[in-house]
Amino acid sequence: MAGYLLCWRLEGAPVGLSRLEACRLSEGYVSIGFMSHLPISGEQPAVPLPDREPAAIRAAVARLDPAALARFEADWTAATARARDEYSLLPARYFVEHWFNWVAVARWPELAARLRACERIVAESPDRAERRAAAAEISQILRQAETTSA
Amino acid sequence: MGGLTRAQIDQVEGLAARIADAVAVRRIGTPFDVVEAVSNVKSYGEGPVMIWFLEDYRDDVVLVVRVQYFELSDPAG
Predict the structure, then answer these.
(1) Domain containing residue B60
(2) A14-23, A67-76, B44-53: which has the highest mean pLDDT?
(3) What are the chain A neighbours of B12 within 8 Å (beta carbons)?
(4) How high is the ipTM of this complex?
(5) What is the phi-psi region of residue A51: left when phi exceeds 0, alpha when psi lies from -120 to 50, beta otherwise?
(6) Which of A12, A80, B24, B77 has CA 20 to 30 A from B44's CA?
(7) Domain span including residue A125
């Protein structure tokens, strides 16, 4: 299976980054192969997949990681403020999608651990190819978690 | 990006480029520190496009790991 990884370059001065340029790799994305066996088979989720609505997602977050509730509440406050400012419900939808996916991953401990491992690889590996493969695997983990409805 | 039209892909790429711009502005003056070389996965939405991304300061890139495109119309949009 192959996924995509979009890469936008931050370009600028030493610490930089004052100007950016879209770094189009193979028309904006590059296909990278990633692990075919994610640690989700045979494992039971810590909580059921909640409905896609804030209260249900909040309850799931509280069960999975009470410490994450402060960030959940801060994001909710920001999303509702933006919705009010823009007269749009879309910010609430972005919020729901973000936290629904957070729960979708976190309820599978092995998958969540693999996601964190991939984040560490992206942060720390000196091997660019390994970092890019890990980022592509994060992409797959997010998609797989959302589509696993057990 | 599977399933998206060229115009939708352009919207996604435009948003990704602006996210990279915003990240760059935020980072101006911030010393590089390998400990914070990459963020956790973040998301940002605008209009029908929602992007999930990592900020990789080692390579000075924003890595888009997921894109969602909402078909629902928005009264304000």
Answers:
(1) 6-69
(2) A67-76
(3) 6
(4) 0.74
(5) beta
(6) A12
(7) 39-147
